[in-house]
Design goal:
The chain is mostly helical. Helices cover 99% and strands 0% of the residues. It has 1 helix and no strands.
C-alpha cells in the first residue's frame, strides 16, 4: 500500500526532520557551550596573565624593598659607627683633658705641700730664733735690772 508507504516515508521524513532539527539544536547548543568554554578559557587566561603580572610586580616590589632595606641597613650601620666613633673621640678628648687637669692638680698639691713644708720649717726656725731672743732679752733685762738695782743701792749707800 502506497499510502502506507507514503505514510511511512512521511513519518521517516518527519523523523529525519526531527533528527536534523535535534542535531541542529544540539549543534547550536554545542557551539554555544564551546563559545562559553572559549570565553571562560580566555577570561581565565586574562585572569592568569593579570595575576602573573601582579605577582611579577609584587616580586619586583619585594626585590626593590629588599635592596632598599639592605641599603638603609648599611647606611644606618655606617651612621651608627660614625656616631660611635665621634662619641669615642669626644670622650677620649675629655679623658685626656681630665687627665691633664688631674696631673696639674697633683703638681699643685705637690707644690703646695712643698710650700707648706718650707713655710712650716721657716716658721719653726723663726719661732726658735724668737724664743732664743726672748730668753736673751729676758736674761739681759734681768741682769740689767740687777745691775741697775745694785747701782741704785750703791748710790743710796753713798748718799746715806
Amino acid at each position: 500500500t502506497l499510502s502506507d508507504t507514503l505514510e511511512r516515508e512521511r513519518k521517516k521524513n518527519e523523523e529525519i526532520k526531527n533528527s536534523v532539527a535535534a542535531v541542529k539544536q544540539i549543534s547550536a547548543e554545542i557551539k554555544h557551550i564551546n563559545a562559553e568554554i572559549n570565553e571562560q578559557q580566555e577570561e581565565r587566561k586574562r585572569d592568569e596573565i593579570s595575576q602573573n603580572q601582579s605577582i611579577e610586580k609584587l616580586r619586583e616590589d619585594l626585590q626593590d624593598l629588599k635592596a632598599k632595606t639592605v641599603l638603609e641597613a648599611k647606611y644606618e650601620k655606617k651612621e651608627m659607627k660614625g656616631s660611635i666613633d665621634a662619641m669615642r673621640r669626644v670622650y677620649s678628648q675629655e679623658e685626656r683633658e681630665n687627665e691633664l687637669k688631674l696631673q696639674k692638680l697633683k703638681r699643685n698639691i705637690e707644690i703646695e705641700g712643698q710650700v707648706h713644708k718650707e713655710s712650716k720649717e721657716f716658721l719653726e726656725q723663726k719661732q726658735e730664733e724668737l724664743q732664743r731672743l726672748t730668753e736673751y732679752w729676758d736674761n739681759k733685762h734681768e741682769t740689767d735690772m740687777e745691775e741697775k738695782e745694785r747701782q741704785l743701792e750703791e748710790i743710796k749707800s753713798k748718799l746715806a
